[in-house]
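2.7 Reproducibility. Because tokenized structures are sensitive to small changes in the input, we list the exact sequence used for Uroporphyrinogen-III C-methyltransferase, including any N-terminal residues retained from the expression construct. No trimming or masking was applied before prediction.
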Amino acid sequence: MTQSYFPIFWDTDSGTALVVGGGENAARKVRLLVAARARVHVVAPTAGEEIQAFAEEDRIILSRRPVGEDDIAGAAIVIAATGDNDVDSYCAAIAQAHGVKVNVVDRPDLSSFIVPSIVDRSPILVAISSAGTSPVLARRIRERIEASLSPNLGKLAEFAASLRSTVAERLNDGRKRRAFWELFLDGYGAEGVLENRPDAGRQAADELLGALARDEKPKGRVTLVGAGPGAADLLTLRALRALQQADIIVYDALVGPEILDLARRDAFRLFVGKAKGRHSYSQDRINGILIDEARRGSSVVRLKGGDPFVFGRGGEEVAALRNAEIDVDVIPGITAATGAAAALRLPLTQRDLANVVSFATAHPAAGKDEPDFAALADPNQTAVIYMGKTKAAEITTALIKLGRRPDTPVAVIENATLSNQRILTGPLCDLPGIAAISDLTGPALIVIGDVVAEADLTGAETFAQTATKDRAVA
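Resulting structure tokens (single pass, no recycling of outputs):
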């Protein structure tokens, strides 16, 4: 049966931590203790470079000799890390005889406490333990938690501490104080602090305190969030926090269920994208929804595939919100071009092949000019074309006429980064064939340029073969 442990945090001001041993195991423990500003005494006949450096910097006391009973009896806690069974067992026996808590590295049977894996966002600390059964598993869990927590979480804790007296003075109702902390920590004030914008945090706190004191609904806000090319694990941490704080999520067709599953469970979700059999919302109507919901005091996330400012109409929505005097933030996402390039290990620029990369859409707004094909025809440039399937023939004709080689390598990536990702490839002269492929229905990106030859095209289909096969089936 696994030994049971009760988690506690030791006050480093309460005494000295004795570390017995001078090798790498001891150095790891010393590193943690020094980071926690503990008083550390290391006792060992010899010590490694890191421990010696700590001693030379006066960050620890180092005694180069064997450990004695007085060393152990006078310590608040003991960590034995010699790797010598006799010495470690001696430390455990003496510590237990004097009522001193002891940890023997990798020997839970000799220990009265264990050292957990730690995520340090001081003053916030997260400790993970497997009760000594699997330290590697505990480290893996720590790594996942580490990746999910903002590096500035400690700053947020300190900022919250600085607000405590002000909140107590301005809100004399305990329910309102609780509401303030919940709304502030789940909202844009905390996000501002996490983004190294403390002034935004102070402004948000002041507005929220004023609204609660006047029994008003807090001011709403809209955040445009880039959902990336599709894979949920390509979301940024900031995007994830926004999803988990949102009251309402307004999302497009390119946002998959795996990403929506990361949102707060009680958030209202409104689909406004274009999809077969579903009514399409106009841009003006979407703008109106965002404005109305923010005015009701909601925290609104406008969730878009890719990046909001790369063919995502993010600029139009920001302009509408600003004109309505609604506060708006933008969280970038990995755009489809960079997501697809990474999935194929395709360098969009490379010194000897392409020194420019251009993003273009094959479907400009009504009344606007077609893409600048003259610029896209430059052989030293990589051209990335969004939404180009139905205009593949026009793109090909224009580029070849303007100087692109007919044999220029091309890749078409459908559903980039997802499990059903599909790659088609071939020379530019064969690109029109993709228009005849009936099952090429997902979001597809066209990459044109010599860099395509550097990509990992394992499992790729060719334009000509796929189009011929599709016609034969038909």
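The domain at 337-473 is CATH 3.30.950.10 (Methyltransferase, Cobalt-precorrin-4 Transmethylase; Domain 2).
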